[in-house]
Amino acid sequence: MDQRKTEPDSYHRNGIAQVVLYGEFTATANRKVRYAVSLTEIDLTVQKITSTPAGRSKVVFNLRDCVGCRTFKGEDNTDVGAYFSAYFYPFKRRWMSSGVARQRVEQCFRVALAQDSHANLEEAQRWARAINEGSIRQLPQRDGVLYSEVRRPCRVMLLLNPHSGKGQALSLFTGHVQRMLTEAGVPHTLVITERQNHARELVREVDLSQWDAMVIISGDGLLFEVVNGLMEREDWEAAIQTPLGILPGGSGNALAASIHHYSGSQPVSCEELLVSCGFMLCKGLVSRMDLVSVHTASNQRLFSFLSLAWGFVADVDIESEKYRHVGAARFTVGTLVRLASLRVYQGRLAYLPVEEPPSRPPAQVSPPPPASAFCSSLLCRPSGASPGQNTFHNSCNSNNAAKAKRGDGTAPAPRGPPDSLLAPLEQPVPGDWTVVEEEDFVLMLAMYQSHLAEDLLAAPGAALEDGVIHLFYVKAGISRTALLRLFLAMEKGAHLASSCPYLVHVKVRALRLEPFSPKGVITVDGESVEYGPIQAQVHGGLARLISG
Ligand SMILES: Nc1ncnc2c1ncn2[C@@H]1O[C@H](COP(=O)(O)OP(=O)(O)OP(=O)(O)O)[C@@H](O)[C@H]1O
């Protein structure tokens, strides 16, 4: 029978953290193998108990890497022992390759202090509670960034586009995400979208009091739907404060790659990026995110969290749809194809430059403030507008109700804060704007997050909430080789340091583009939008995003 020492007799290795729990337990698979387990405020230390000092290797798990701890009884009714499992996702070296990525480590112990199974379960629960509480206290930290936390337990609506990326979003969910959410005790409802704009219509009508977070597992296009659905609600001001989350299941996964980058972690892709974002979701840290309000010629207003593109990048994004089966490589293939038929795009570009660093420092988002508190920056003046059961659903009642109510399926005009920096599209830009001299371009790309795709660090200086649009344009005259070199350098975010005379980067608050050709492609967050004159302005910290 296991013995529990009541007097902790050790301290954390650096002599600071005091042991809060100590116990000796057996392994689950082999009851002859015993471990000394000690819990401090910052870590869990596991040491095998052996007669030979050489066998007493010690493993220390930081609670910051822990998503949760669960208890359970043995499958065998005669087993009086109880069990607790702690789930860690520490950065570990990859097998057979360089670099590190978060990898799952489960630590499971059998508690058998007494012949009373109930007492053993209580003891296991005591450990699980302490580990869970400790892991919640040990949240990831980043210099200069302050977060709030999602409400716990966090009821998550998980929207999944089964066709995104290579069409594997559902298997990515069942293979990686579902287990993590269960380990973290996050109740979630999975909604599999049935068609384009399903998610948009659903979030436009859903009772948001039922949800603590809306998370998509897809590419950026599904989040674009969710953001715009929320902004089309009468209560947009409160609705857009719903914490949003992103789990990469698409081919570009730009926002997922950006939040991973902001966390200061080494670049990862594919499933490793999914695990990283899943970990952030389980930790539930929320920060603010800028949204950019975009106006098209027909007076349509959209809200964007990622990018606005015209020319080479927009064409590649849309044309590479046909290479979707190759996953993220679709952009590489698309880039090479478009390079072969490189063309010049004519138009007029104007912008309002950032004159000084944003006056508002990154702010603490906790606890959820009154709705209007999010619109306090210069850029965002309140308009006075009104403000886990792991269940699978192929459709949603509230969505059907929404469709029936609206009938025609057309999207209502998005509401939102006024765009005080923009003049009507038919009027000249305001006097303090800069009008770009050149009218011949190869591309125009406005970015408000760091990544254009998993492997394209287009705006290394971007942050989630800085009220800045990074405007890039490449002037006509650049050779194919030089443009290819720029994109290759972008993989490491080194394109700006390449001193390419054709590439211009300027930080702006607002911009206007007037293409001259009658036909073409403009994308917002990777989605094709109405082609023609278009303008946009940033609204600092309008939305909230689970990041870490
Ligand atoms: N069930 C569905 N059937 C068809 N289209 C859908 C469905 N759900 C969402 N969509 C739409 O599919 C488009 C692509 O979705 P999404 O961006 O999420 O994936 P992706 O294009 O593979 O990813 P990425 O944007 O990272 O390249 C979006 O326009 C989205 O609105």
What does this molecule look like?
With 548 residues, the chain is an alpha+beta fold. The chain has three domains: 19-137, Roll (PH-domain like); 148-287 and 374-406, 3-Layer(aba) Sandwich (Rossmann fold); 301-357 and 417-541, Tumour Suppressor Smad4 (Sandwich), CATH 2.60.200.40. The protein is built from eleven helices and 26 strands. The strands form four sheets. Strands 10, 15, 16, 17, 18, 20, 21, 22, 23, 24, 25 and 26 form a twelve-stranded antiparallel sheet that branches. It has a seven-stranded antiparallel sheet with strand order 4-3-2-1-9-6-5. A five-stranded parallel sheet has the order 14-13-11-12-19, with helices on both faces. Strand 24 and strand 25 (527-529) form a beta hairpin. Helix 2 packs parallel to helix 7 (270-283), helix 3 (198-205) packs parallel to helix 4 (220-231) and helix 8 crosses helix 9 (330-340). The longest helix is centred in the first third of the chain and has 21 residues, at 117-137. The radius of gyration is 26 Å and the shape is elongated. The structure holds adenosine-5'-triphosphate. Adenosine-5'-triphosphate (ATP) binds at residues 161-165, 193-196, 198, 218-222, 225, 250-253, 526-527.
The proportion of residues forming helix, as a percent range, comes to 10-25%
Q: Enumerate the distinct ligands.
A: adenosine-5'-triphosphate
Average pLDDT value?
A: 86
Q: How many strand segments?
A: 26
What is the CA-CA span between the terminal residues?
Answer: 42 Å
**Count of discrete structural domains:** 3
In DSSP terms (H or I, runs of 4 or more residues), the helix count works out at 11
The radius of gyration computed from the alpha-carbon positions, rounded to a whole number of angstroms, is 26 Å
Q: Could you say what the CATH topology of the largest domain is called?
A: Tumour Suppressor Smad4
Annotated CATH architecture of the largest domain: Sandwich
Biggest beta sheet summary: 12 strands, antiparallel
Assign the structural class, choosing from mainly alpha, mainly beta, alpha/beta, alpha+beta, or little secondary structure. Answer: alpha+beta
What form results from the Cα inertia axes? elongated
Q: Supply the CATH class of the largest domain.
A: Mainly Beta
Contiguous uncertain segments of 5+ residues: 1-12, 362-409
Proportion of residues in extended strands:
25-35%
Main location: membrane
Subcellular location: Endomembrane system
Keywords: ATP-binding, Kinase, Membrane, Nucleotide-binding, Transferase
EC number: 2.7.1.91
